[in-house]
Amino acid sequence: MRVTVNRKAHFNAAHRLHLSDWDDEKNQEVFGRCNNPFYHGHNYELTVSVTGKIDPSTGFVVDMKWLADLITEKVEDYLDHKNLNEQIKEFESLNPTAENIAVVIWKRLRPFINAENGLKITLYETPRNFVEFSGEE
Ligand code: NI
User: Could you tell me the distance, in angstroms and rounded to a whole number, from the CA of residue 95 to the centre of ligand 1?
Assistant: First the structure.
C-alpha cells in the first residue's frame, strides 16, 4: 500500500527565455513576453509529492516537518528572489523554462528522498500553466 504525501512551497524568481542561436525575431516569436531582455518575475508555486509505504511505527510515509525543511533549504533558499539565468549555475546553458526548473528541483531533492519512495515535482509558473516531473523511469 503506497500513499502520496504532498508539501506545497513557493518562490519568486526572475528569468528570461532566450536562445542565443536564434535571432531576436525568432526568440520573440517563440518565447513572447518571457523573452523580455530586461527579465521579469514569476510567482512559482511548487508541490513536492513523495509516494511510498507507511512506516508502521510512525504512521508516516515521510516526516512532513523534515520534508518542509528540506524544501526550504534545497529549493526556496536556492531559488527565491534570484535571477535564474544569471545566478543559478544549472541555467548557465539551460533555458529556465518551467519544464527545466522542475527537473532541476527534482534533481536537487532526489538524493535526499528514500530510494524506495517516488518523487514528483509539480511547478506552477502561472495559475494556469504548470508542469510535472517524476524522473525518468
Ligand atoms: Ni516568464
Answer: 11
Domain membership of residue 87 as a residue range: 2-133
Catalytically annotated residues: 34, 81, 125
CATH number of the domain at 54, please.
3.30.479.10
What pLDDT shows up at residue 55?
A: 96
C-beta separation of 98 from 82 below 8 A: no
pTM attached to this predicted model:
0.95
Compute, in angstroms, the gap from residue 52 CA to the centroid of ligand 1: 34
Decide: residue 128, CB within 10 A, 0-12 exposed, 13-18 middle, 19+ buried: exposed
d(CA 137, CA 74): 23
